[in-house]
Design a protein that fits this description.
Layout lengths: L7 E3 L2 E3 L5 E3 L10 E3 L2 E3 L6 E3 L2 E3 L2 E10 L6 H14 L7 E7 L2 E14 L8 E25 L2 E3 L2 E4 L3 E4 L2 E3 L2 E6 L8 E5 L2 E2 L2 E4 L4 E5 L2 E2 L4 E5 L4 E4 L3 E2 L4 E4 L7 E8 L8 E9 L1
Antiparallel strand pairs: 1-2, 1-9, 3-8, 4-7, 5-6, 8-11, 9-10, 10-11, 11-27, 12-15, 13-14, 16-26, 17-22, 17-27, 18-21, 19-20, 19-26, 20-25, 22-23, 23-24
Length: 280
Amino acid sequence: MALSAGQYQIGDLVMGAGTNYLVLDDVNPWTVTTRYDQVSPRTGDHGSWSGQEWRDEVMVPMRIRVRNQADGTPGGWLAAHQRLAAAFTPSHTDVELRWMTGGVEYMMRGRPRLVEPEVTTIRRGYSVTRCAFAALDPRIYGAEQVASTLLPSSSGGLVWPVTWPETWPAVVTSGRIQASNEGRAPTRPRLVIHGPVEGPRVTLVDTGQTLAWDLALTAGQWLDVDTDRRTSLINGQVSRSGQMTSRQWFELPPGGSEIAFGASVHNPDAALSVAYRSAW
């Protein structure tokens, strides 16, 4: 569902204006801290050496006034609290925290970490509850964009056998997708290859990095490729990572990128869909 300014959503629970969950403070998902696992003193010089450095996970705290607006009783509060606790329940997979700022919807992925109500006001039908969301992926994402293409092909085209060769050009399908990452950080797309297709491959044109598989998909089958988790699953279930002939995993850098779709055998019904988000 579309959010309004100042609203937040985790799972199917919407918090903020017009809901039973008033967010009391400005939520700060913009914190940046650095993880550095290897630091050692310099020999014969000031300071120290550091190994690889990465952005650390981001903890997003929230203070929420929980009240059932239709029933301001302890029982009404409990019903509202149970919905909040369900949204922030521990999860074995990443969930999304979405919010609207400046007319733009953003999203982070992570795990719920805390639900702590202040119990002294429950008898009056409300509580101020501290919650926390751990964004294990520290990047902030924009709305999802999806683009599709078929394999490159041409159709039509005539050469008239007259005194000079007069050509009518063919109609060309490029087999390429233009993707625009409007953020300031690389983003990892999701690729879905739809059969029938043999020996599919996907290339980031700017760098030549290629993902390729020695397999054949029949009509109705698809290969779901997660470039973040580096998995490739037929129909989202059966792994085909062992059939990869090229593992040059790629990201979409800030700005425009071109993605090419190819195969060892042309089939006019084969298709590639690319889903991605701008990232900050």
